[in-house]
Structure of histidine kinase:
Amino acid sequence: MCCFRIIQLNAKKSSPFIIPALVGAFILAGSLIVFFQLSSYQAQIIESNKDDYTKVIENTISRREGRVQTISSGIIGLYGSSERVSSAEFDRFAQTILGSNSEILNLFVLDGSTIVESYPIKEYVGHDFDFLFPDYPTVVAGQKAMTAEFAINETASLVIAVPFGYFIPEGTILSEQYKLVLLSPIDDNEVLYSVAKSGGASGSVVELLQKEKDNAITVEYKTNLFGHKLKKYYDLRYVLWDASFEAQSYEHTIILVAGVVLSFVIPVLLVRTNLLRARLQEKSEALERANEELKKVEKSKDEFVTMIVHDLKNPLLPIKAYSEILLSQKLGQLNEEQAKRLHSISTSAITLQKMIQDLLDANKLELGKLRLDIQEGNLSELVRRTMSELEPEFRKKGVAVSLELQDVSCRFDSMRMGQVFQNILLNALDFVPDKTGKIHISLKSEGGNAVITIADNGIGIPKDKIDGLFAKFYQVSTDKNRRYGGSGLGLSVCKGIVEGHGGMIRAESDGEGKGTTMHIMIPLAGKSA
């Protein structure tokens, strides 16, 4: 107030235009401050919304892809547990799986390209898949669908028909006005799926205006789902426009043009700025809550899978035990064919039991429920004991094993580390040649760590495949005619166990045909607190 009076006194002495000029300058300065402040906050809100929606889309696709992988693992496990699966068995199993995955359109089992099993649409059985569905995108039950292919064995494959709307279902985007389009990976002008919402009403016919395209975000997600028709892994490319992505530039223009007469509105605009901040906070909190709910659903799913897998183990125990009793011929003599069939039952039960244990351990690792009983022990003795247990397998295949073991003691879980050694050695046994295969195991103490190296002269690994080797369900070869089976869980479980000891595991290979070396390192003093 004192300064204003001084200005008034000086103005009377100089010019009557000074006060209006100063007031105008103050108003203009205030208007400019508000203009730039609003522009900055609005740009932050838009970028934050774009980042949040990108994360929501990527996380939702990841979870949905995981459900498809789980379904495929279950069906592959069904076929791996039996030499022949009847149509009734397949239907019962498929009905159980689709009971909690009703969005899946259909499950196909192909022998070559012939459909031998189909659920729930049975009339496809006996037809050639590529003849029934010659075009891309494949239309199943009147809907455009992804046809994800998984190898069951050398001749059979599983195809899961998933509608393109499955990955980002309606309701995923928490907004009252948005447009979402899924573009074909082959043709940018072809729309595989679209959904829009405006004023509370939803629709599936979407047309993006040029202005909306300019402000939209493109989210590209590379899946691990191999397309039967596409003959490559699916890349999902979504274009999302949301009303919150549009800058309200007309407000800024009004502020600049009417700045002289809007001096009283400046406080109101600042309140509006705070409201914009509050809206950003509320939207962020809503998105966080939605993500937390999705995490809870995912955790419930993992706990359910763990329970189901645990229940699957129970019938295997009597199957394995009775087959071993019969093979011992204590209950009577067996002819050669009977013994061969019983041996196949026993081997399949053991294989399925290992797959179930790997899946159970993998889910325990994800839920943080895998407990380690870490005690002081002699690691070299554990390696020798594991080799002794596997020696008949190596002898049967004619594989030479050499040991170079120092006497190393450290803190570790004997059962779980034995599981790691056995898994890696059996992998090496699978991939080395008969009669000429060689495996070298070394153990030494180095830099406060126990270092285990397992090297083989097997088929090796392409260098571009090594990074994904320890990922859950990862397969180096996804060809349905691949020679080597497995669930893709063993090395993922090994990684979790080794890291649970505070250690690390990595693979090394110079390429195909040049063998593989696995390196394991765990602290001598055990995992630090």
Q: What stands out?
A: DSSP finds eleven helices and 17 strands in the chain.
